[in-house]
Structure prediction request, 381 residues.
Amino acid sequence: MNILHCDLDAFYAAVEQRDNPHLQGQPVIIGGRPESRGVVATCSYEARKYGVHSAMPASQAYRLCPHGTFLPPDIKKYHSVSRQVFEIFTDYTPTIEPLSIDEAFLDISGCHKLFGSSQEVGILIRKRIKNEIGLNISIGIADNKFLAKLATNLCKPDGILLFDANMIQNTLPKLPVSSLWSVGSKTAWRLNRAGIYTAGDLANISPEKLQRIVGSNASFLIALAQGHDQRPVCPRSDAKSMGNEITFPIDLSDPAEIDQVILELSSQVGFRLRQSELKACTVHLKLRTPDFTTVTRSRTLGNAIDADLVIYNIASDLYRQSGLTGKPLRLTGINCSNLIPCDLEQPALFEKSSDRLDNIIDELKNSFAGAKISRASLMEK
Ligand code: DCP
Ligand code: MG
Prediction:
């Protein structure tokens, strides 16, 4: 039981509740303004009781929870909190695979002598994040990545759960197929249509039959349904590419709104690159139209990059040159490839002004908590 999956609870909303005590225990919704066409990034568990969730149009969230407090995201602040959280992880193991701004796998095989059992390490990490950062993190513990993440989902919010042999035998078979890694709503629908509803149903099916339904993913899915997952925790620099994408709840066509999504995705990918101490030489933009046609555009640079705004400028440029500006889109994604570790990169002759500004803004925000400091260009957008 050496794999920990750690995921902060209602991350953006929890940071705002921490920094504004009058919001504690209240429904807080982070994202677009209720009157805008924006979407919900996340919301506090108090707001989830009303049916509000991530990616829902903000106007719908307002109808469900009109008394909620709606706040715009303060991405820079969340990045700096996230860095503090990841720093705590590194006190326990170097084998950390960041999945997003608030989520990571930790392989803690080597740290039992120093810190005790996996459960004790989990308890310690939860306590430190609560005491030193003021946030709740849920932690799943298991023998492999799939079961650890499943455990986190089962114990959220503010929980810790060991997915042991007893749970593999008694709990896993009863879970719906949608709990399995890579089974989205479409695959779940196809499985259900074939009479396969639970992980238990999947665990006993012949690979040949399953292959006819899900294709080459069949043996991987059967292994997961039986509680097996061989994938190692891939620390930072093993990744070949890093990307994030968003499928919109309703198609978007307004170039300003798409640009805003590109900015958000750039900051997510930039964050992951910096967390992994990697830089990218190629930026890819992926656009999918309502008829599922996927268009990708990419640009390879002479230097390696990791700053949000540099990624954004390239991706936004690719969007404008894509021929799809103003056309409806159902998905937008950004992927960075040709990754190199930061310490292998040739040092730039002159520090780029955008990087320097990133650092200055981070420092100011850290020194004056709650202050509204941002780039004018971002504020205009
Ligand atoms: N996020 C976003 N847009 C989404 C999903 C998430 O901007 N469609 C942002 C806001 C979240 C953060 O990423 O706070 C982390 O995502 P999670 O999926 O971990 O969601 P939360 O941490 O908010 O809630 P949970 O307790 O379910 O983990
Ligand atoms: Mg989370």
